[in-house]
């Protein structure tokens, strides 16, 4: 496999062919920016969530889990700044009306730009480089001036609103539910500052040009933590959180050379610092997988102001009262999924000259942990014994049964979906209760007793 583009194509094709990811609404021609996770995809996605939850909630005495409602009072999005400022710079091709996201088009031709620049700044850069940017559909370079396009998705939830009232939005980001429940968690648990709240939730954005498979979609999930600290006690905690997030990706099997940090050049006015963990995606290179943000007291101050409820915290030991500062981590599940899949993907030539595609996912992430094969499917005694082994293992692990084709083909099928262990039941099993277990990465086999599986 030569170029990085070919690798991306191979991953997208494997994802479809083996039931990891399908285009959303495919039988109706497909819906841009929407994807459905198939049988192996949902396992991988759930395993990523479980591993993330384990790291950020189960293993931490100072973090508390949450699952807040997606629909929120519309004033939440005023307080957060989303109704006024959650926008991307849009321009339209004058010939065919295709919409482009200007900051990303500028970046693609090597011009430094981002969505936080003013319309004026972006229009200037856009004018200077217009000839170099071509419409992806009709190749024209004739575009309208840049203007801000709000990304919030409106709904007709509670359709009883009067004309002047705001619509209820789908969440533009998952973390707002954490701020709304800060007081509830302080009042109902033993949480004492410094402490964190973790949540995995859906987010929806009217992305101007969804692209790069799962990287930029219009519906996605975010895994977020918000860590609450005393004012001005942010720096040390921020460094620790950054390190922990990096270490987690490495622990979960991502090659360190495919990760890098990128500091934000244009900070939003309230932020004290912001860094992204970027992954080296096939076909488009390093890009944001997770944001780690030092957000000061902005979020809780805004919600105190807009709701009229005082969200300050009273320190039980000193009696001090203050609005806590927040350190945030926010990672898209789709971007993590794509990174884990890309990092694990290998095409190899084996010693016997055969070729195989293998997903070297870590054991915790692999969709199927054990595949169980009877050596021959026309020998009832082998099938019965294999079923016994399968029934035993499926109680504790996600297992797969496969009796179709020769053993080599069955191994190839499991390699492609990343199954760490294949178990073969043969005639020796009937005599001494041992099976062969084959390791995905080394392809080495050994005999072990069924009781040792
Ligand atoms: P970008 O600059 O790429 O649009 P962002 O800076 O707007 O991303 P955040 O608002 O910080 O992203 O969201 C946190 C995380 O959510 C991102 O790091 C990313 O993993 C994920 N994310 C954001 N937008 C999308 C999207 N359209 N599709 C998939 N994941 C997304």
The helix tally amounts to: 14
CATH architecture grouping of the largest domain? 2-Layer Sandwich
- Number of structural units classed as domains: 3
Low-confidence spans:
none
Cofactors and ligands: adenosine-5'-triphosphate
The number of distinct β-strands equals: 21
For the CA atoms, what is the radius of gyration?
25 Å
What oligomeric state best describes the polypeptide chains here?
Answer: single chain
- Which strands sit side by side, in order, in the main sheet? 3-7-8-14-11-10-9
Q: Quick one: CATH superfamily of the largest domain?
A: Bira Bifunctional Protein, Domain 2
How does the helix and strand content classify structurally? alpha+beta
Question: Can you walk through the features of this model?
Answer:
With 453 residues, the protein is of the alpha+beta class. The chain has 14 helices and 21 strands. Strands 3-7-8-14-11-10-9 form a seven-stranded mixed beta sheet, sandwiched between helices. A five-stranded mixed beta sheet has the order 18-17-19-20-21, sandwiched between helices. Strands 5-4-6 form a three-stranded antiparallel beta sheet.
Short key terms for the protein model shown above:
5-stranded mixed β-sheet, binds adenosine-5'-triphosphate, BirA Bifunctional Protein, domain 2, 3 domains, Rossmann fold, 453 residues, 7-stranded mixed β-sheet, alpha+beta
Element layout with pairings:
Blueprint: H1 4-17, E1 21-23, E2 35-37, H2 39-58, E3 63-66, H3 75-79, H4 82-85, E4 87-92, E5 99-101, H5 102-108, H6 119-129, E6 147-150, H7 176-180, H8 182-188, E7 195-204, E8 219-229, H9 235-251, E9 259-263, E10 273-281, E11 285-294, H10 298-307, E12 313-314, E13 321-322, E14 325-332, H11 333-344, E15 345-349, E16 355-359, E17 370-374, H12 380-394, E18 399-401, H13 407-417, E19 421-425, H14 427-432, E20 434-439, E21 445-449
Helix pairs in contact: 2-11
The protein binds adenosine-5'-triphosphate.
Adenosine-5'-triphosphate (ATP) binds next to strand 8, strand 11, strand 14 and helix 11.
């Amino acid at each position: 496999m030569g170029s990085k583009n070919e690798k991306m194509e191979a991953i997208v094709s494997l994802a479809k062919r083996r039931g990891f990811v399908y285009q959303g609404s495919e039988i109706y021609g497909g819906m841009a920016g929407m994807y459905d996770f198939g049988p192996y995809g949902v396992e991988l996605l759930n395993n990523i969530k479980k591993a993330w939850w384990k790291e950020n909630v189960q293993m931490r005495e100072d973090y508390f889990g949450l699952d807040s409602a997606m629909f929120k009072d519309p004033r939440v999005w005023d307080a957060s700044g989303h109704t006024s400022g959650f926008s991307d710079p849009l321009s339209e091709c004058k010939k065919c009306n295709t919409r482009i996201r200007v900051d990303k088009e500028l970046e693609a031709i090597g011009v430094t730009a981002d969505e936080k620049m003013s319309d004026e700044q972006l229009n200037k850069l856009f004018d200077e480089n217009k000839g170099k940017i071509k419409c992806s559909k009709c190749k024209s370079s004739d575009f309208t001036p840049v203007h801000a396009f709000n990304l919030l998705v409106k709904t007709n939830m509670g359709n009883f609103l009067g004309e002047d009232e705001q619509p209820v939005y789908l969440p533009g980001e998952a973390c707002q539910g954490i701020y709304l429940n800060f007081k509830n968690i302080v009042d109902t648990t033993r949480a004492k500052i410094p402490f964190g709240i973790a949540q995995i939730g859906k987010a929806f954005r009217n992305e101007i040009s969804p692209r790069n498979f799962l990287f930029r979609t219009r519906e996605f999930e975010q895994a977020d933590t918000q860590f609450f600290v005393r004012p001005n006690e942010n720096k040390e905690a921020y460094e620790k959180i950054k390190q922990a997030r990096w270490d987690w990706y490495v622990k979960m099997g991502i090659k360190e050379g495919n990760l890098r940090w990128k500091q934000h050049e244009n900070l939003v006015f309230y932020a004290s610092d912001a860094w992204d963990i970027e992954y080296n995606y096939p076909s488009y290179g390093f890009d944001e997988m997770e944001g780690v943000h030092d957000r000061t007291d902005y979020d809780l101050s805004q919600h105190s102001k807009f709701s009229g409820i005082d969200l300050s915290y009273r320190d039980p030991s000193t009696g001090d009262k203050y609005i806590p500062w927040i350190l945030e981590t926010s990672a898209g599940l789709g971007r993590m999924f794509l990174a884990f899949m890309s990092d694990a993907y290998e095409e190899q030539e084996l010693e016997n000259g055969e070729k195989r595609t293998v997903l070297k996912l870590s054991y915790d992430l692999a969709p199927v942990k054990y595949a169980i094969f009877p050596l021959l499917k026309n020998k009832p005694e082998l099938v019965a014994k294999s079923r016994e082994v399968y029934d035993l293992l499926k109680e504790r692990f996600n297992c797969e049964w496969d009796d179709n084709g020769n053993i080599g083909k069955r191994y190839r099928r499991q390699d492609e979906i990343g199954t760490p262990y294949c178990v073969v039941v043969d005639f020796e099993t009937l005599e001494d209760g041992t099976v062969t277990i084959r390791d995905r990465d080394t392809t080495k086999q050994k005999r072990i007793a069924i009781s040792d599986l």
